[in-house]
Amino acid sequence: MASERQDVDKEFEEWKEEHGKKYKSKEEEAKRKKIWLESRTRVIEHNKKYDSGESTYECGMNHMSDLEMHEVCCGGMRSCREEKNDS
């Protein structure tokens, strides 16, 4: 079990590096990792359906895998207010 957690921790670190992710605090990183883990679980579960022929497409993790749905809808901004304030 500890080895599996270490593997997932390493996967998260590699994903952060691949996508240039840096967080302002330990709390922010913990929040983003939780979201990332939820995304990862959804991807794994969906791809099981793909592998068994229950779905016609495969999913993967991407640069938005640590974002909440409303952040994804705002074009990847942490908040829609940030985008509006930058204008």
Automatic annotation (TrEMBL):
Basic and acidic residues: bias regions: 16-28
Top-level taxon of the source organism: Eukaryota
Disordered: annotated span: 1-28
Start and end residues of each Cathepsin propeptide inhibitor domain: 12-72
Xref: SUPFAM superfamilies: Cysteine proteinases
Protein name from the UniProt record: Cathepsin K-like
Species of provenance: Salvelinus namaycush (Lake trout)
Native organism taxonomy: Eukaryota, Metazoa, Chordata, Craniata, Vertebrata
UniProt gene name: LOC120060104
